[in-house]
Amino acid sequence: MPILSERPPWRETLVSLRVPNYRKFAASNLVANTAVWMQRIAMDWLVLQLSGSVAAVGVTVAMQFTPMLVLGLWGGVIADRYPKQRLLILSQSSAAVLAAILATLTLTGSIQVWHVYVISFALGLVTVIDNPARQVFVNELVGPHYLRNAISLNSSIFQLGGLIGPAVGGILITAVGAGWSFAINAVACLTVVAALFSLNTSQLHASPAAPRGKGQLAEGMRYVRSKPVIFWTVIMVAVLAVFAFNMPVFLAAYANNVFDVGAKGYGFFNALVAAGALTGAIASTRRTSIRLSMVVGTAVLLGVVQAIAGLAPNEIAFSVMLVGIGVANLLFITGANSLVQMSSNVQIRGRVISLYILVLLGGQAIGGPLMGWVVEQFGPHTAMLISGLVPALAAVVIASLIARRAHLRLRFSLRGVRPQVTIVTRAGKSVEQL
Fold first, then answer.
1. 165, 37 contact by CB (below 8 A)
2. The Major facilitator superfamily (MFS) profile domain covers which part of the protein (predicted)?
3. Closest Cα to residue 193, out of 279, 57, 98, 96?
4. Which of 77, 352, 59 has its CA nearest to residue 230?
5. In the structure, what pLDDT confidence band is assigned to residue 392 with cuts at 50, 70 and 90?
């Protein structure tokens, strides 16, 4: 799918920020994402301290993502039916209340593991509405012309928050405890609400609301199944979500059991992943096209790098591989997100995105406890190795199935300055160069 006629100059890397509404939204999102990462780090470490179990951290992850697994498709229907701005105001206000409750329980010393589980589940219910509405609302903020850049920039903002948040969160946990991270997140959510109220609604590119009717969930499922580009991307996201996207579980185990670096080290490991992811997100703004082969290829890359991290002999080597994991992760996610959004019809996009988010977050609801169990049974190194090898193998299998169905094969050439790999049809016609 061509998205740009030519690679943009570096000065246009942030071109979507020229839109005033998106500029306000992006600024508030940076504050909120930094605070959300602080809260995530604090929640995971708090559960680990209260329970002494890495598997309990996996359960916390599952509590956050199970609502999306069960109700995610309904979130897409709601996002298609109702104004996204109002939905986001409601969801962010709810998230602020939940963060305030968590802060109060922690600062008063009343917090227990089951409290964190319940609040994590409630935050998951908020995510059911917030995520599909947020994804589709970006299109309303910037319009189709800047959509691709805004998607990549959103990923950059998310990862910049992930770079700052874990480092600050780790310091806060050590200095004053986890409670203040939750309090800061409550204020940050209210900042997003204020920004949403301040938007100029006359400049929004409003999406047409989907009418009420029977069979809308089934319609969304049929649409995804009929579009191979979307279908195979969603399948690949599902595999990675279960096995590879459970870094809190792995990093908590490495920080606590392998390198014994405590909360600061846990925050530092998360910051390294985010630093690589920020690099990958910025690099993704330079893409001139998005292909299914690119999405599957970056899945293989991510799996291989993550498997190598499981074999890292020391903390320095492990830290370097974490940066590589972040780069590959974001190249995959931004490619998959862009391909799904830009390949779907605007009137059904909310349901398509909700299915995409369902497998992304729902997969982590399954993978969190699963990989937590693997960590406790076989150790962090083996778990990290498995988390990379399974997705890499799955990506190779998917690529083979796609190639067989489309009658494609690879052609290798050693001519010229560098080797070339080209996808061709059986008749020898070139489809694309890798």
1. yes
2. 1-406
3. 96
4. 352
5. very high
At 297, list the tokens: 């290829």
Average pLDDT of the chain, as a whole number: 81
Q: Report the C-alpha dihedral over residues 272, 276, 282, 283, rounded to 10 degrees.
A: 170
Element (H, E) at 276: helix 262-284
Q: Which one has a higher pLDDT value, 213 or 1?
A: 213
**In angstroms, what CA-CA distances link 366 with 62, 68, 351, 384?**
6, 11, 22, 16
Q: Which residues lie across from 424 on neighbouring strands?
A: 409, 430
Average pLDDT of the residues in 148-163: 72
> Which of 170-174, 371-375, 414-418 bottoms out in mean pLDDT, i.e. has the lowest?
414-418
Q: What is the DSSP string of 216-241?
A: HHHHHHHHHHH-HHHHHHHHHHHHHH
Separation between Cα atoms, residue 125 and residue 96, nearest integer Å: 14
Tell me: pLDDT of 6 over 60: no
- CA gap 357, 335 in Å, rounded: 14
Task: Please check the confidence at residue 410 and state whether its pLDDT lies above 60.
Answer: no
What are the start-end ranges of the H helices in 82-176?
84-107, 113-142, 147-176
Beta bridge partners of 425: 408
Which domains does the chain show, CATH number per domain?
A: 17-433 (1.20.1250.20)
The helix/strand count (H/E) of the chain reads as 14, 3
